């Protein structure tokens, strides 16, 4: 009925005839007489109803598990007799046993279920002998049974969770060590071996920016709690949706994510990547923007820097949430590189520095595909206002956004202006 403990079972001392009685006979004595047969039945039902126990070695089932079942039966007999719940020594043995099952990979529901299955069989055997006249004693027996299950279930859960937390802590440390090694550059094989992780052919590298959850701006709401919940949901969904072991160093506003990729095609699958980010965004309730690159494990450090710059370029040029590859931002990325040409292009818009509404209108007009009505709707102004602002821009810069030769120059000038304002290319992008 209970979980295993390697300690041998000793004969129970002679028990006094106390506790509930059915038909005048003490229930605990009846249960004690049935103990050998019940132990066998519990083991059979355990394997039949809780398949996780089939994974344990046969000798362990015949030895350790069986002995602990017998110990559990005797412990319950004592509870029936005296009404005294198991003491700390017995509960410590149960916690230790549950921790072993956690280490062996037996699910918690199976471990708890083993105790309840044994209790159910015991109750069925002894209650079959009760008559209507025994109702007060039936209630007493049920009360002691529930009390026993309460303290035992708590001990099982405590031992199991403590072991899993320790194991997860060790696993997380080894994963973070591997991630650190990958981000630093160099050979990550030793760190992967320590983490028990097989290195993939390549990693799909994401530089992820996480937008705020709507609850983060609600008055009276603890923003740190909301941010932790957002990250917890994102990580859980990432684990569910990834083949292999994803590695991530995420804060509330984002961070690098490495997804193992053994597909034959080294190019990212844009459709699959878009679907993944959509699912992650729905899970965490926030917009996600990602710069994307691929790299062999030994080249991840450079890929993270590239993905970060791609994302920052995409954000600076208003491309919006979703995945962004280098091919998506080729011109803007190149314009983010420092040099005299970029500085000269950015300088073309210097006359607009004191007129931010003109710069904003130009940016929106280009983003809206030169559609003045869409631009007006986006800015919530009249189309005539858009026309006026574009004329003033042309007067101040000498470049007309509706004239073909000037259009390309204005696009490049705006991109260079945005990149320089963001500080892109001035220094190595931070990993974020």
From TrEMBL:
Listed Gene3D superfamilies: PucR C-terminal helix-turn-helix domain
Residue stretches making up the RsbT co-antagonist protein RsbRD N-terminal domain: 36-174
Region (Disordered): 1-21
Domain PucR C-terminal helix-turn-helix per the UniProt entry, residue ranges: 358-416
Pfam family, one: RsbRD_N
Superkingdom of origin organism: Bacteria
Annotated protein name in UniProt: Helix-turn-helix domain-containing protein
Organism listed in the record: Kitasatospora saccharophila
Higher taxonomy: Bacteria, Bacillati, Actinomycetota, Actinomycetes, Kitasatosporales
